[in-house]
Amino acid sequence: MAVAGAMASSAALPLSHRHLSVEIRAFPPKVSGFRPRRRFPRLHSGRRSGARATAAALDSEPETRVLHNDSSDLDLFACPICYGPLIRKGPAGLNLAAIYRSGFKCQQCNKSYSSKDVYLDLTVTSGTTEYNEFKPARTELFRSPLVSFLYERGWRQNFNRSGFPGRDEEFQMAQDYFKPVAGGLLVDVSCGSGLFSRKFATSGTYSSVVALDFSENMLRQCYEFFKQDDILSTANLALVRADISRLPFASGSVDAIHAGAALHCWPSPSNAVAEISRVLRSGGVFVATTFLSSPLNTPFPLESSRPLRQLFGQVTNTYAFFTEKEIEDLCKSCGLTNYTSKVQRAFIMFSAQKP
């Protein structure tokens, strides 16, 4: 009953704009000559083995081996410290079972990375035993087990009160923007509980999908949802913990990046978008949604968020909301072009491309 009460109170969002105003701009043009990198075979709908098969694969996997530099796996992840290539020791493949059994080591700085719990930890502080650091309240909030549990159980669904169309329509809108890079690698940054990661991975549109978040508990919740879908057990899908301002990918290696309802939570949106621009390859597409700024615009209204505010403190005033002009200016300043957007009340979905 207490969880249900918290769910109801935390889920409500304000109607920050009472009139409906939709602005639609043209999709970005398809990039001539664009050829996404197909590092992994596409997922076929017939590949259904279930969570039990995944567990069996973990138990029966043969002794690990070292993959050489020409392996398709090695040009995917990079060291978040020096951005050098990682040597992978373990079974091949970009799937939950293979990555769980693998270890990674940077060729340049000798830093080692391994799967912790159910995700691969590629943060700078991975492996530290004494050092701890905390992000701003708007980031730390989503590391809470309670918020991670509630996110798809009432929290996210009520974003429509601020103009969000809903996950099915938002997914299709994003898919339309990503058409020029179909068949490539997609990274769902700040993936949360994997709401859109699951849709991207089962769509058959992308060669592989990386679900990436800074929150350990969001990634654990993400994994719990993955286990409920047989297709995702063997999909080309990875769970990675990483800092949005220090993405663990080589420059120019990613075809598509999605960030759903996340930009306002990032500690430094400018550093994050700069990193996104760095890892996108030429012609790559960035698509994101967020809340536009307004006096009443906050995902946590005063009365309905009272239980959460008692638990987490005054986080409601720490979010970074921007005008559309500011978002467009940020994308341009980070080297992205072909900015387009769709606006509905406080909701905005925008897209930009790497030239």
TrEMBL record:
Chain spans, region Disordered: 41-64
One MF annotation (Gene Ontology) recorded for this entry: S-adenosylmethionine-dependent methyltransferase activity
In terms of superkingdom, the source organism counts as Eukaryota
Q: Which UniProt keywords apply?
A: Chloroplast, Methyltransferase, Plastid, Transferase, Transit peptide
| Basic residues bias (residue ranges) | 41-50
All copies of the Methyltransferase type domain together span 187-287
Kindly state one GO CC term assigned in the UniProt record: plastoglobule
Write down a Pfam family by its short name: Methyltransf_11
BP term (GO), one: methylation
Coiled coil spans: none
Q: Which SUPFAM superfamilies does UniProt cross-reference here?
A: S-adenosyl-L-methionine-dependent methyltransferases
**Repeat keyword on record:** no
Per the UniProt record, which residue ranges are transmembrane? none
Q: Where in the cell is it found?
A: Plastid, Chloroplast, Plastoglobule
Quote the protein name from its UniProt record.
Answer: Methyltransferase, chloroplastic
In its UniProt entry, the species of origin is given as Iris pallida
